[in-house]
UniProtKB/TrEMBL annotation:
SUPFAM superfamilies, sorted: Bet v1-like
Protein name, entry field: Carbon monoxide dehydrogenase subunit G
Pfam families: COXG
Cited Gene3D superfamilies: 3.30.530.20
Organism: Acrocarpospora pleiomorpha
Xref: CDD domains: SRPBCC_5
InterPro entries (UniProt xref): CO_DH_gsu, START-like_dom_sf
Length: 206
């Protein structure tokens, strides 16, 4: 079964891709996912609890990042799990890409999904609805987390703002610098002239 999902994020593509490669932070944004252990070599153990139609299932398994290219902003992920208390299983291979848009980034995820057990009998339409709901909730949480991260740590965007933004910031900064310099001049030279005046004798004053 092939599934396609995409969502937009109000963040620079490199920032979005870097965040999406942080499995611990992304897992916290996915409804029903609990990350239990990092096994090394980009491999993680966790659980997924999800409601599909009238059935709630819980899978326990392993996910691994098999490739990630920060230049093209493309990554491939594999996951496999077994249903708790039943004979179902899930296998998935997903390719994720991040592209620039006029307002930030668009994340596209293409998933090759194989299911067995109760969920497999419900059909692609039901599974797509569940996937769309999870992607919508996850994308909102990821976007909010990225915006909060960037707001608290502007240095996350290592490339820095565009030249136009830097020029605008510099223009806004000039009056402040001028005010600080003028204040320093008044305080420094005011002290010097004040000290000279205090050393001048009454007879020398005009």
């Amino acid at each position: 079964m092939n599934l396609e999902h995409s969502f937009d994020i109000l963040a620079e593509p490199d920032v979005a891709f870097a965040y999406l490669m942080d499995v611990n932070r992304v897992a916290a944004c996915v409804p029903g996912v609990s990350l239990q252990e990092e096994l090394g070599e980009n491999t993680y153990r966790g659980t997924l609890k999800v409601k599909v139609g009238p059935v709630t299932v819980k899978y326990g398994g392993i996910a691994r990042i098999i490739s990630a290219d920060p230049v093209t902003r493309v990554a491939a992920i594999e996951a496999e799990g077994e249903e708790s208390g039943a004979a179902g299983s899930v296998r998935a291979k997903a390719t994720m890409s991040v592209a620039a848009t006029a307002t930030g980034s668009r994340v596209t995820v293409s998933t090759d999904l194989a299911l067995t057990g109760r969920v497999a009998t419900m059909g692609k339409g039901v599974i797509e609805q569940v996937g769309n709901r999870m992607v919508a909730q996850t994308s909102e949480r990821i976007e909010q987390a990225i915006l909060e991260s960037v707001a608290s740590s502007p240095a996350v965007d290592v490339a820095g703002p565009p030249a136009s933004a830097r020029d605008g910031s510099a223009l806004r900064l000039m009056p402040l610098l001028g005010s600080l310099i003028a204040d320093w001049v008044r305080r420094t030279f005011g002290k010097i002239f004040g000290a000279r005046a205090s050393r001048t004798t009454p007879g020398e004053r005009k």
